[in-house]
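Can't paste images in this forum, so I'm doing it all in text. The chain is below; anyone willing to post the predicted structure tokens underneath?
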Amino acid sequence: MSGPARQEPPAPARHPILFVTQVPLHTDVAARLSAFANHLTGIEQVPRGGDLMLLYPDGALRNLTREAGYGGAGAQGPQAIAVREPTVHWSGGKAIFSMLVGAPARQGQRVDARWQIYEASGLGRLDHARITRVARQPAAYNNVSPLYASDDSVLFTSDRPRDGQVHLYPQLDEYEATPTTTGIWRLDPASGALTLLNHAPSGAFSPTIDSFGRLLFVRWDHLQQDQLAQRDRDTAGNGVAQPFKSFNYADESAGAPALDTREELFPEPRSASASPYGPLNGLMSNFFTAWQMNQDGSGEETLNHVGQHELAFGPMATTFGADPALARHTNDALHANRVPLRREGGLFHLREDGRQSGSYLATAAREAGSFTTGQIIRLSGAPTLTAEQMTVSELTPGAPDDALPGGRFRNPLALSDGSVVASHTSAERAPEEGSALPDLRLVTLAFDAASARYRAGAPLTAGIRKTLRWWSAAGPARHSGPLWELEAVEVLARARPVRPAAPLDAPERAVLAEEHVSLAALRDWMRARGLALIVTRDQTSRDRADLQQPYNLRVPGGVSTIARAAPAARVYDIAQFQIFAAEQLRAYPGRPGRRVLARPLGGARSGAGHETAAGAPNPASAGVPPGSVKIAADGSTAAFVPARRALTWQSLDPAGVPIVRERSWITLQPGEIRTCPSCHGLNSVDQAGRGVPANKPQALRELLSYWKTLPIQRGRDGAK
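Text version of the structure:
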């Protein structure tokens, strides 16, 4: 495994460091430091008493929240606070963070406190801190992980329902049906304009903007069927009570009837089943990875299109068990990375190293029972790199059994002077549920020559102690001792990054020109209807590394792409491209909110705000599965799709049997045109050794011809 290059001892930090303190937690289940559902507000999930702190290079320490009149020691009641995730403005003169105000004043009291976004100013040595709530944010919901966009709008994650329908609150994640954030939002504080940038069925975490102007974040995408419903299915009919009593609603509307079904259409089941192609292997996968999109929400994808083949390589499940050509192990000769990340977890707390553009620090941690503490790694991810070229290097020691020599880390931060600080606990293993970490202190990393890794060096503070009392559900609780120190950021001015808008690719531009369609008019038409357009040039072309799903593909009567290494292997015909939308249809008695299910676009369902039923005007085809469009003879597809709702898709054979499935949810913005040259984007070449398809997509030409016949288009300037 690769290790870090040794660096000279850093000079003393030249800029102040802003961070938060947190009363130690005794649970890692949907709590403040958890991988999932860390936005919840229960007193056990986030004990009150922490503060926003500012540390100067000479060791002087300011408590900014106390200066501004928030929080305090002793008994925690209506004025009690918890704080999280500060981000410094580009000017270095102010910062934004989330704060929770209020705690039970007596046992059993319900406190409807919400995480809200606040701005702190007065960071100069002789200033007095001022803290104000950011105006026009969603007041009824939890708004966390705030940051400033390059244009000074405020980006954040929130558990506000995707389209504001209160009866859908909260959205439940795809893992344990736990409340989750719905994605990353943008707020213009001056106008109050609020925009959902991505719809994340299982939440989005720790967004940041890198020096290239990309909005980066961490997301968990397993796209597996509901394990709670699977347990209900396993007990149905054998006389055992179904533990979760899961069921589907007919649609997303408030008055939708509950159905006597827990049907799921996508992806394949969690356990093995039968298919016309022989045994269909079950799909279960848990992995957090780095994602990117533009600051307007367009262009969402994993960072440089990286996936498990490059980051969590090794044994992988195949789709069809009877096809010997499908590989049960990644081809590790195809990627530069030699440090595999564990799949029952992944990357957390991703931040760019300000001195090395395109180099990112993150915590590699388990997805449960770890307080998201683990090993610090460095990820290369400049936009000039393909996924095959990206690498992971270990900064601190790791271990296969997750017992980390020298302790565990989280929230790594590369400072402008070349040093790295992080929150560190001396515990080598995460504690049992019901116990807290023994400590969690900000430290500077120090190089250890014996291990060729970094270890915890000197702490940044002398320890911040508090004595606190509060009411928990079980009765009175107290803490007297050090607080945890988290989420450090450096207070300094930074250049505002700008990412130029990418032009539409040449093959698609050529089709629009030949069809006499104005790109601007087409985008305006889509924006007015909340639509986007997805185009794939060749559905038969797949990256050479992805041999776990069928890769010898053919369009009947059209193009085919057959791997050079396996010319005699099974060839799969694909004829239709089926698109699914994430709809909140799954529910469980006694649990408010709903989980998303993948449902085909279109169909007979209806309901308030249900744009997937009628808002994607694609050509109708008789006798094909709902939500599908034809794969053209050149392998291309094109379809109008609803914007600001998570989508996924699969290719189907002529009989409607799924062949190749997407493994992620993707959100598009109104007016966005998303072009994918191949079904699985190519790093260098496809399964046949060919480069990126450059055909002018026939399916786009056919869709535009259809679009020009729509009644709304006649007499308009969209087609000239």
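The chain is about 5% helix and 35% strand. Residues 5-12, 604-615, 714-720 have pLDDT under 50 and may be disordered.
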